[in-house]
Amino acid sequence: MDDLVGVSRGLDPEVVLEAYARGVFPMGSERRRVVTWHCPDPRAVLPLDGFHASRSLQRSRRRGGFTFSFDRAFSDVMLGCAADRPVWITPEFVRVYSGLHARGRAHSVEVWQHGALVGGLYGVHLGAAFFAESKFHRVTDASKLALWALVERLREGGFRLLEVQYVTPHLATLGAIEIPLAEYLRRLEAALAVDATF
């Protein structure tokens, strides 16, 4: 990847947090047994006042029998994400991010249907910035609904920045945009100077 800025042999929790604060995030490589560090330019963010819920998504939320929780099943959410992305969410990532969760630095959103975990997402929290790492779904729309619930939670908690790494066609339909890295780093610095509550 042309956004690669470094490679390491493992993950240290303090280094992970410092990296996010500098605009860098890690990805695992189970095959190569290394961690790669990335800083894309442009950077993807989802403006907290710009989330777009289509009519079909609104109907799904109203009629799907979904309920939502936060930080109730962090490890299960990570494992759900890893099932779809075993290349970069390695067992070491699950261990380190679960440790960050225990320290209040990483959070999860869970989506439930008929008592079963059907979707969710997780990410890292520093200041008034939230770095969304990955999401998964087991039924239609569950990951989109997790992101919607996250946006509502961040608004309520006084967050300033929701970073989503890369814009995909899926994220673009929900309101994600790209901004130059320099602008992202300015927004990040401002968000890190503010306390927000998840």
Structure in words:
- The chain is an alpha+beta fold and 198 residues long.
- It has a single domain (4-192), classed as Leucyl/phenylalanyl-tRNA-protein transferase, C-terminal domain (Aminopeptidase), CATH 3.40.630.
- The chain has seven helices and ten strands.
- The protein has a seven-stranded mixed sheet, sandwiched between helices. The chain has a three-stranded antiparallel sheet with strand order 1-3-2.
- Strand 7 (116-126) and strand 8 form a beta hairpin.
Highlighted features:
single chain, 198 residues, alpha+beta, Aminopeptidase, seven-stranded mixed sheet, three-stranded antiparallel sheet, 10 strands
- CATH architecture descriptor: 3-Layer(aba) Sandwich
Question: What characterizes the major β-sheet?
Answer: 7 strands, mixed
- First-residue to last-residue Cα separation: 32 Å
The helix tally amounts to 7
Structural class: alpha+beta
Number of domain units: 1
Number of DSSP E strands? 10
Q: What low-confidence regions span 5 or more consecutive residues with pLDDT below 50? A: none
Overall pLDDT level: 95
Order of helices and strands: EHEEEHEHHEEEHEHEH
The percentage of residues in β strands lies in 25-35%
* Strands side by side in the biggest sheet: 5-6-7-8-9-4-10
Query: Per the principal axes of the C-alpha atoms, what is the gross shape?
Result: globular
Find the CATH topology: Aminopeptidase
Query: What is the helix fraction of residues, given as a range?
Result: 25-40%
CATH class annotation: Alpha Beta
Corresponding CATH superfamily: Leucyl/phenylalanyl-tRNA-protein transferase, C-terminal domain
